[in-house]
Amino acid sequence: MGNDDKLIASLEAFLNNDVETLKGNIEKLIKDYSRKSRRLDKIIHQSDKQQRELLELNEELERTYAELDEYKNHLEEKVEEGISEIKGLNVEIEETQKEVVFTMGAIGESRSKETGNHVKRVAEYSKILALACGMDEDEAEMLKQASPMHDIGKIAIPDAILNKPGRFDEDEFEHMKRHAELGYEMLRHSPRTLLKAAATVAYEHHEKWAGGGYPRNIQGEDIHIYGRITAVADVFDALGSDRCYKKAWDDEKIFALFKEERGKQFDPKLIDLFFENLNAILDVREKYRDLFTETPLNG
Amino acid sequence: MNNLTIKASKYTPAIELNAETNTLTISGKSYPENTFDFYAPVITWLQEYFSSDTVEKTTLNMDIIYFNSSSSKLFFDLFDLLEEAQDGGKEITVNWYYDEENESAEEAGEDFKEDFEEMDFNIIKK
């Protein structure tokens, strides 16, 4: 029976002067009222409790977010630190590699009393020619680093031959020629692209475009472009420098030889590119010109 | 009679009222936008269910994580309905489930049990 019904029944009982029924109904109403009132208290209490719990959860969530935020910021810092450290190490590795390569080249040169600047100039000439013949920057840069090692095989040639003033006899020349293959043997086992390129340069920088070079007497495009480029760069620099067995040639004489040897000793396309880029090449020669011809390493 | 199934949503519980197994289940959160509209079909279904003579032992399983105050009011009404049915001779069991970490759900169960002292009202830790 609903409350309205109970009220109506109570009213009827009152009107009929039915005291017992009235009393019973009113008792029921009071009991019902107090039960409902207790329920209301409970509902309010439950609601309060849940609100407090949710508030606590929310606070916990905010704390977690704050921690996460701090962690994130910290992480970004750490990552940045790590990246700059790696960058530093990379630069260090690259610089070390370049230095090792130059030093190796310079060792070869120093044995024959040539100067360390020779390898620097050959490196720069090689890069100019590499870019001129269409190589991309990365590959040209690699050849620049590899070409100084072209004479590394000379470290295995006895001093008596290497530094002999005047011309070699036939035996001595045969001995001297072995430096190409020796250099190749030293470098070819490396899996590094740079050292592989250096091996090719060492092996093929004395080959001639029309044949007749050494050690394999190959010709034309069978000679790797690295070898052909380094040949031009090396000969240009060698002719222009004083050596133990000769004085430096003047430029006109060198250019005349290059024109003469275009398509014979040298790749004709590279000779054309050499003259097209002559200003840049002469700038390099000026920048790295030899100050002390007797400097032992790259001085 | 047909069973009544209402799928859970983000703010409302899953409801399964099964007249064949005589099992009523309400589980999840209860924050309907309009609580009385949401539960109206449940109340109607129960009234019809209990009006049938064949109904004997009925079990109501409630597993409510959080609920708003109007849901609480409605649960009292729901238990009133069950109490009336019990007074009318039906056998009723209510199982109120709560998670150990959910103190408010446990306390709410105690509140309901206290109000319906004549009923077989079990508070069960999950």
Q: What's the arrangement of secondary structure elements?
A:
The complex is a heterodimer of chains A (299) and B (126).
Chain A: H1 3-15, H2 19-111, H3 116-132, H4 137-146, H5 159-162, H6 170-187, H7 193-204, H8 225-239, H9 251-261, H10 268-276, H11 278-287
Helix pairs in contact in A: 1-2, 2-3, 3-4, 3-8, 3-11, 4-7, 6-7, 7-8
Chain B: E1 4-6, E2 14-18, E3 23-30, H1 35-51, E4 57-67, H2 69-87, E5 91-98, H3 103-115, E6 120-125
Parallel strand pairs in B: 3-4, 4-5, 5-6
Antiparallel strand pairs in B: 1-2, 2-3
Helix pairs in contact in B: 1-2
Q: Which two protein chains have the largest interface (Cβ within 8 Å of the partner's Cβ), and how many residues from each?
A: A-B, 13 and 13 residues
Strand content of chain B: 25-35%
Count the helices of chain B. How many?
A: 3
The rounded Rg of chain A comes to 46 Å
Structural class estimated from helices and strands of chain A: mainly alpha
CATH architecture type of the largest domain in chain A: Orthogonal Bundle
Distance separating the two termini of chain B: 31 Å
Q: Mean pLDDT across all residues of chain B, rounded?
A: 93
* Cα shape of chain A: rod-shaped
How many beta strands in the DSSP annotation of chain B? 6
What profile does the largest beta sheet of chain A have? none
N-to-C terminal Cα separation of chain A, in Å? 113 Å
CATH architecture of chain B: 2-Layer Sandwich
